[in-house]
Amino acid sequence: MEIERKFLIKEMPDLTKYPFKKMEQGYLNTSPTVRVRRENEEYFLTYKSKSIDGISREEYNLPLTQEAYEHLIRKCDGNIITKTRYLIPIKDLGNDHDSLTAELDVFEARFNGLTFVEVEFETVEKANAFIKPEWFGEDVTDKKEYYNSYLSQLV
Q1: What is the DSSP letter of 73?
Q2: Taking 70 as the threshold, does the pLDDT of residue 97 lie above it?
Q3: What does DSSP assign to residue 147?
């Protein structure tokens, strides 16, 4: 189960001190979502169901070989998405004992300049109780125009 919230960024943190992954992904289907992704030198096929409550949905990740990934990425429709994902530890201000990771995506190529941040949670209750850090902007969790699968279909 994937439980996450997504935000625009009000103030960009200093990214030079955080680990990151170079990512490339394409979509074989967008409803339900079937995606192939490269994260550095790892490869995955992902299935995501439609969201149940706007925050959570079923998600399954299967490892792929590089050869399988390269074969499937050529079969994807629409835009191939490239981005750098920075992994930024944050304190959940709504649950003082919880430490979370903000996954800040900086898009490249066609979507150069687009940035947003996602945070994954253990429960829907924790997601709903989350108090965002100051550098987070508008909550766009339920806005489809910020879904990667939507971006992949833009002409």
Answers
A1: H
A2: no
A3: S
Is 65 exposed, middle or buried, given 0-12, 13-18 or 19+ CB atoms closer than 10 A? exposed
Dihedral angle sign, alpha carbons of residues 45, 39, 152, 74: negative
Q: Is 27 a catalytic residue?
A: yes
pLDDT reading at 4 higher than 60: yes
List the catalytic residue out of 27, 69, 86, 146: 27
Q: Which letter does DSSP use for residue 144 in this model?
A: G
Cα–Cα distance for residue pair 107/25, rounded to 1 Å: 12
- Tell me, what's the pLDDT at 42? 98
- Contact predicate 7/140, CB 8 Å: yes
- Which residues, other chains included, contact 75 with Cβ-Cβ below 8 Å and sequence gap of 6+? 28
pLDDT-derived band at 92, boundaries 50, 70, 90:
low
* Radius of gyration of the chain from its Cα atoms, rounded to whole angstroms: 15
Do the Cβ atoms of 100 and 121 come closer than 8 Å? yes
What tens digit of pLDDT does each residue of 30-80 get? 999 999 999 999 999 999 998 878 889 999 999 999 999 999 999 999 999
- Beta-bridged to residue 82, according to DSSP, are 24
